[in-house]
Amino acid sequence: MDTQFINILGLIAGTLTTIAFLPQLFKTWKSKSAKDVSLVMMITFSVGIFLWIIYGIAIGAMPIIVTNAVTLVLALMILVLKIRYR
């Protein structure tokens, strides 16, 4: 398969999974409540995303690096709100 096609496919997949966090972030921010968000899940997820970034750097895969970096920022924002609105 064409490398450019694979990179575009990776960017599309990463973008979709990244924007999936936006509704949760907006809801938590607006309601000032994160009681339904699992703290353990968010910590585990954030560590996993960080490891994906390291993996992406190791193999030089820009779609993995970029989309997971954005996802990590969003996940950390939800984690901060979870702690703040406890």
UniProtKB/TrEMBL annotation:
Keywords: Membrane, Transmembrane, Transmembrane helix. Its main location: membrane. It holds the Pfam family PQ-loop. GO terms for molecular function: sugar transmembrane transporter activity. InterPro entries: PQ-loop_rpt (IPR006603), SemiSWEET (IPR047662). GO terms for cellular component: membrane. It comes from the Bacteria. It is a multi-pass membrane protein. It is found in: Membrane. The chain crosses the membrane at residues 6-25, 37-55, 61-81. This is MtN3 and saliva related transmembrane protein. It comes from Allocoleopsis franciscana PCC 7113.
